[in-house]
Amino acid sequence: MMMETVQAAEMLPGLERIRARFITMLVDRLDELEQLCDNMYEDAPDLAALEMSKNILHKIAGSAGTLGMTTLGDAARTCENQIISFLESSQPGLEQIFDSLGEFAELAEGLVAPSH
Which residues are in the HPt domain (predicted)? Predict the structure, then answer.
């Protein structure tokens, strides 16, 4: 994945600047997701928090995919799709969504950490 990003950056002027802005934005989005997750409980989930989380993940998935960060984009898309499914049918359970969000956050923090 890293090699693809480096090659793309060499081919497209300014891509690294866009990628750096994305990483900066990702820090803020992770903070937002963490705050929203604090509002989600097994017995009475906050549907507004789930909807806002879904929207954040959708944006991250699209941007990450465009910038060649396929693994991060796929992880965000998985979380987004699980939330959509939960909102429509209460499946999968919030525990599975939290697990997926945790995996996504680990991937994202791995990208963010080197820039701080």
Answer: 18-103
Higher-confidence position of 13 and 60:
60
Q: What are phi and psi of 40, to 5 degrees?
A: -105, 120
| pLDDT at res. 16 | 83
CATH of the domain at 100: 1.20.120.160
pLDDT the model gives residue 5 = 47
Q: Is residue 58 part of a domain?
A: yes
Q: Rounded to the nearest 5 degrees, what angle is found at the Cα of 110, between the Cα atoms of 84 and 59?
A: 35
Mark 60-82 as b/e (b = at least 16 C-beta within 10 Å).
Answer: bbebbeebbbeebbebbbbbbbb
Q: With contact defined as beta carbons under 8 Å apart, do 105 and 33 qualify? A: yes
Sequence-ordered alpha helix ranges (H) in the chain = 2-11, 15-37, 47-66, 70-89, 94-112
Residue 51 zone, left/alpha/beta (φ > 0; ψ -120 to 50; rest)? alpha
